[in-house]
Amino acid sequence: MKDELAKALNEQMNFEFYSAHVYLAMAAYCSAESLEGFANFFTVQAEEERFHAMKIYKFLNDRRHRATIGALQEPKNEYASMLDVFEHGYSHEKQNTKKFYHLADLATNEREHATIYFLKWFIDEQVEEESLFDNIIQKLKRIEKDSNAFYMLDAEFAKRSFTPPAE
Questions:
Q1: What pLDDT is stored for residue 158 in this prediction?
Q2: For 125, which of 42, 66, 102, 164 is 20 to 30 Å away at the CA?
Q3: For the range 15-18, what are the long-range contacts, defined as Cβ-Cβ under 8 Å and sequence gap of 24 or more?
Q4: Nearest to 83 by CA among 35, 49, 120
C-alpha cells in the first residue's frame, strides 16, 4: 500500500472517531430533551462508529502502516428538533459515504486489492446507514403532530443495541 492511501485511511479512521463524537453530542441533546430512547439510538450509533474506526486501525497495523490519532473537531450540540438531529445525521452519513468512495477510488487506482476488498464492507455499511437515517426521517415527518407515535418511536429506540458483526 502506498503512503497516500495509508494517509487517507488514517484520515478516515479519525473521521470515524469524529463521527462517534458527533453521535454522542446528539445523544446528549436527546437526553437533555428527556428522550432516552433517542439518546440510546445515538449512543449505539457512536459505538458503531468507534468499531469502524478500530477496524481501520487494525487494518493499517496489519498492513504495517502506523495508525495516527488526530484531534477531534467540536461537533454540533444544538438542534431545533428531533427531525433536525436526524437530518444532520443523514447528511453526516452521506458525507462519510463520499469519503469511502474516494478511498475506494484511491485503492482501485493503486490496484491495492486487499484494501479494495476491505473497503467493500464499509461501502455496504454506508448503504445501510443512509437507508436507516432516511427511513427514520420519513417516519418523523409522518408522525410530526402525533405525540403518541413519537413516544412509541422513542420506546423502540430504547431497545436498540450494538453487536459487532462476526468477522
A1: 64
A2: 66
A3: 15/96, 15/99, 16/49, 16/50, 16/52, 16/53, 16/56, 17/49, 17/50, 17/53, 17/69, 17/72, 18/72, 18/73, 18/75
A4: 35
12's CB contacts (< 8 A; 6+ apart) are 56, 99, 100, 103
Residue 165 has pLDDT above 80, yes or no: no
Please count the residues of the chain: 167
Q: Which residue has the cell 436498540?
A: 160
User: Over the range 79-93, which residues count as b (16 or more CB within 10 Å of their CB) and which as e?
Assistant: beebeebbbbbbebb
What is d(CA 41, CA 156) in angstroms, rounded to the nearest whole number? 9
Location of C-alpha cell 446507514: 129
Instruction: Please check the confidence at residue 95 and state whether its pLDDT lies above 90.
Output: yes
Confidence band of 153 (pLDDT split at 50, 70, 90): low
Per-domain residue ranges of the chain: 3-158
Per CATH, the architecture of 3-158 is what? Up-down Bundle (1.20)
Q: How far is it, in rounded angstroms, from Cα 91 to Cα 73? A: 17
